[in-house]
Amino acid sequence: MDENNFGNDIVTLSDDDGKEYSFEILDAIETDSGRYLAMLPYYTDPQEKLDDSGELVLVKAFEDENGEEYFEDIADDDEYETVADLFIDRLQDSFEIDEE
Predict the structure, then answer these.
(1) pLDDT band at 84 (very low <50, low <70, confident <90, very high)
(2) Where are the beta strands (DSSP E) in the chain?
(3) Which of 10, 26, 81, 95 has its CA 20 to 30 A from that of 52?
């Protein structure tokens, strides 16, 4: 990414069926267990943005043998809770976070 580009970090991910979804990366955390991203769904249509729940999407980042980064859901519940708590601590001053 260009260092002088101060726009949103938007990534497009595909599910197993090939359907694409866009997300805005809000934050990234590196721990002993790996690299994690907190993202929000990204919409170009204002109505879709209003209709969205605004729920954070947390994923774990991996690198393949070619150095390409890819993301997976965090399958382990304890790992997910630990990472979620880290992001909540970091993002609570910038965003209204409803902990359920």
Answers:
(1) very high
(2) 10-14, 20-31, 34-41, 57-63, 69-73
(3) 81
